[in-house]
Amino acid sequence: MPIKNYTTIVPADRSIQEIQDALVKHGASGVLYEYEKGTGRIAALKFQLIVEGKGVSFSLPVSWRKFQEVIRNQNIKRWDDEDYVYRVAWRCIRDWVLAQLAIYETEIVELPQVFLPFAIGKGGQTLYEQIKDGQFLLGPGK
Questions:
Q1: Tens digits of residue pLDDT in 8-18
Q2: What are the tens digits of pLDDT across the range 35-81?
Q3: Which of 57, 61, 81, 131 could form a disulfide with 44 if both were Cys (CB 3.0 to 4.6 A apart)?
Q4: pTM, two decimal places
Q5: Closest to 43 in 3D by CA, of 64, 29, 26
Q6: CA separation for the pair 23, 58 (Å, rounded)
Q7: Are the CB atoms for 27 and 111 separated by under 8 Å?
Q8: Which long-range contacts (C-beta less than 8 Å, at least 24 apart) are formed by 36-43?
């Protein structure tokens, strides 16, 4: 079964705007685009949430080139059309963000909690990247 949104015709900039609007509606205090060099495409959507009175930054990468490999492996005919891949990737991210915000709206979790792997640390890496690189290991406990 092909990946969700593989038939979308929604432009990437509309999906990105919908993400931004939803984040701002839910309390984001700032949104920033990080562009991919040489293409003009957005590589990551960065935003800030206030946690305990302090601004915490988050980075949602699109990684559309990795996504391209996924749809190629699924034998989706347009896998080699970069504009198509970019558009579908952002639509998938939009759906994921809206799902995270829906969980937050249930009050089961706090907003920063759902985006925690994407929190940016002092070194500029996300929490996930720090853990992956072995820079954020928990102690043995008591």
A1: 899 999 999 99
A2: 999 999 999 999 999 988 999 999 999 999 999 999 999 989 999 89
A3: 61
A4: 0.86
A5: 64
A6: 11
A7: yes
A8: 41/12, 41/86, 42/12, 42/16, 42/90
